[in-house]
Every structure is written in C-alpha cells, then in structure tokens.
UniProtKB/TrEMBL annotation:
Organism per entry: Mycobacterium fragae
Record's keyword annotation contains Signal: yes
Signal peptide segment: 1-19
Keywords in alphabetical order: Signal
Top-level division of the source organism's lineage: Bacteria
Protein name: PknH-like extracellular domain-containing protein
Annotated DUF7373 domain residues: 61-280, 298-438
Amino acid sequence: MTVRLLSAVAVAVSVATLAGCTETTGGLAVRAPTNPNDAIVALMDTGSYPTTAGPPPGNAGRDPTAAAVVEARRMAQYVLGPWQVDATLVQQDHFATSPLATPGNLGAALAYPLSMWPGVQQFVDIGVTHHFVAGLTTGRVGTGIVRRLQNAVMRFPDPDSAAAAARDMAGVSPSTQLEPVSWFPRPTALRQPLDAEWRPEACAEVSSNPVHPEFAASASTDGRGVLRTFTAHGSYVLYQFVIAGTTDVACTTVVDALIKQEAMIDQFVPTEPAKMAELPRDPSGQLAARTLWAADDRGPWSEGVWQPDAWLHFEYDPVKAAALFTAAGIDWVSQRLTTVYQARDAAAATRVVDQFTAETNALLDVKSTATGVPGFPGAECFNRAGWTPGPATDLTTVTQSWWRFKCIAQAGRYAFVAVSDQEKDVKQQISAQYRILAGE
C-alpha cells in the first residue's frame, strides 16, 4: 500500500473517530454527550479542588468537642423545630441554630438575641460547673402572631445536674435590649429596646398544666410579649425564647413546645459520655468522604452527616423540605463545603434538584448566571444581584444562607448544592463535587 493511500486511510479513520466528538481540548478528542445535559469531564474547570473522595473521617476520638458535636447531630432529630409548633415559623435564624458542643456554644446560644454578651460568661460558667454534655439550638422567625421561637435542648450528666443548671440559668439577669439578626430580605442587625422590665414568675396562668415552664420571665417590645423559659426534664434543660403578639400567646406557645419536646427527647437514646469517643463521625459510612471540602477543611456550624429529620433545622423552608425528603426517600444529608443529598434513586434526586431550583428562582434579586458551567450543562447557577457582605461572625455559616452565587446539580441518586461569593469558584465547586460523586 502506498504512502499516499495509507495517509488517506488514516484521514478517513480520523474523520470517523472525530465525528462523534464535540471539540478538541488540549489535543484530546471530547465525545459528544448522548443527552444535552450530560457532563463532559474534559471540559470542566475544577480549579484546585479535589476530584476524588477523601479519606473516611473515622470516629470522634479523644477530642471532647468533636465527640459532643457528633452526639448533638444524633440528638438533632429529637429536637423540636419551631415550625412544628407554628407552621408560619420558617424563616431561618442562623445565630439561633447550631449544635452545642462546649459551654462556650451554650453561652452564646442563651445570650442571643438579647444584647447580653457580658452575661455570656455566666452561662459558660454554669455549663462548666454542671458538666454540660451536648445539645442543639434551633430558631425560626415568622410574620404571624408568633414572631420568633428559639428552642434548645441541653444535656447534662444526670437529672440533679440538669435541675441545678436550669435554676442557675434562670438566675442570669437578661438585658433590656434585643439585638437579633434579621435574614430577610438581607442580613441586618436590629436593635430593639424592651418596653417593660423583665417580670419573673411569668405564665402563672398555665402553671396548673401537667406540662409547664419551670422558670419563666416576660417582658415586652413594641407591644409584643417577650418570654424566656428554662425547664429541667430528666437529664436535659429545655429552653425557649419567644416573641409573640401577647405574653399569653407566648406562654401558650411554650406549653405547646414543651409537650412536644418532652415527648421527642424521651425517644432519644443518649450515648454514655465515656463512649462518645467511639461514635462515628459519618454514620452513613461513606458520604462525608464524598462531600467536597475546603482547603483548610473549614465548614459551617451545620457541617457533618445528618439524618433527614435532623437536617431540617438547617433547611431554607423546613415545612416544604420535610415533604420533599419523604417523597424523595432522602437517607442522609452531608454538609462540608458543599451540601449533598442522598436520595432513593436518580429520579428522586431530580425531584430534589427541581424543587430547590424553583425555590431559588423565586427569591428576590436572584437570576440565572449569564453563562453556564463549563462541561456541566445540567448544573443550574444563580446570582443574587442585591448581594452585599453579611455579618462576619462566621463567614462560612453566613454564606450558606446569604450567598452571592449558588449552583444546584445532580449525579445519579445525589443532588448537591454549592455556594460562594465568587462565580468562578462556585462553578469549580459544583464541577469538583460532580466528579467526586460520579467517580469520573
């Protein structure tokens, strides 16, 4: 065969081979996807992010804070969400929602939203004195007659310690000013002086109920009732902070919350403190290692692998999310730099992506980014046009809600979300997360 004929054959073979390719990148022929939304890994930009799973996180180990965080995650599905008391309480209150792993966490949770940061140390000392174990606080805001509800469950070694802690916590004098952070339509620190002095022994009208707050104090702001309560229940201290139309409504809200919370926490099987080091950091056995992490491994307060009911404390709309999680058969939710939802199957994951995309599209000042994700046409990305920097107490945590850029995508049975204040970065995150989950 002549050289000319060999060349002709080579050209023909090359044309046939490249006929199924979209383009050539760096000398590599890239095959066209069979579905227009299929990912093309060779075209993706993942920056410096990892593209393969990391090592499994192992057990909590001897770090007492890590062990307490894992125990708090276990407890979370037995902590009452405010929306389970009043379905209008769905707006997130990030600074009232987090695991409580140290006396310092406890102090910050009980001081907010009161402007009583000098009192934080008193709560910290109470936690140390009575050997606080672990807990979780969860808060939501609404526009109905109940405007704000924070519910916290704090575990102590035994009932006597919990009873003493509840009494001492109630003895910490609250401040005369509220300073909550409103997250809607954008993060804003509000200062609200109280109209009246704090009145101890509030909620006397419900004291004859079988379930009622043990220690209650009330005040008012802008004509609304403000109430904080502490109640010992077994080895736990149950805490509620309520702002409602009247003090009577606030007291009724607390009673409702206590009835439900006591029943829920009674179902929880706590881990003996001496055995908490043996708790697995990833109870799913695999999802944490497959969730994208930051270079410094820093994460938000919600970091970890959670049961779906537990994760509702951190969802944008927990009422809608609860129904979605049931319909989609969500097994686990993992939060590191990105958030990954493990659904029953690929069709269920698509349902999750569709609902999250619709909710994001409905937000004020949000629109799709002008360009898509290179090599990942199935990813949906958004830009919040009215974004300005939010409170900087913990930028990673704040970014989860007050993001500038957000991408939502799917890989098989997994739906996942990335957020960032930089468009290029969020697209690199979503691409890297796809590759980790897809194994490509």
